[in-house]
Amino acid sequence: QKEVEQNSGPLSVPEGAIASLNCTYSDRGSQSFFWYRQYSGKSPELIMFIYSNGDKEDGRFTAQLNKASQYVSLLIRDSQPSDSATYLCAVNTSTGNQFYFGTGTSLTVIP
Amino acid sequence: DTEVTQTPKHLVMGMTNKKSLKCEQHMGHRAMYWYKQKAKKPPELMFVYSYEKLSINESVPSRFSPECPNSSLLNLHLHALQPEDSALYLCASSQEAGGSQPQHFGDGTRLSIL
Question: What is the average per-residue pLDDT within A30-45?
């Protein structure tokens, strides 16, 4: 079983819609969760991080964490074509030594 | 603009060459990382430095040799690389080592081995 799993997609949404990206993790002791956006040929860019159960909002982005069910999600409201990228979920290990990255979900926002 | 600066942006080298990748951050972070990323794959951790000491080496071949001269600089020395080592090499930093802090990535060095 992989430590962090994401649906690889591709996920396509029309412009203006809500894009929902999901991530599950296997290490029940994980405490820190991160979402990165990566455009093709570029490096990962930190979008959000969340440590507590519930929702955390930043502009058009909302991260949702449910530790009991071991999933974290990212919602993108009013999706724009510029949001088209691969979104990587990263989770820390219970020993706290490093991240595990998911394989990423490719998102395409259709104008 | 990223606060983690990597040079060079592109590097082409032969299998017998020796070259170095450089990374610099001025955010006062005490942890620095090297990752390797192949196309359509997530970043793969290579090395972690915490307070200028190597704390994690993910069984990386000895043809990759990291060095941390000071808290702001991280180098990756390359020697006798193989074609399969062609990839995007990413440097990242965080306030402290471990996975509890966000990591900030540089733009990467795209490495091609001939």
Answer: 95
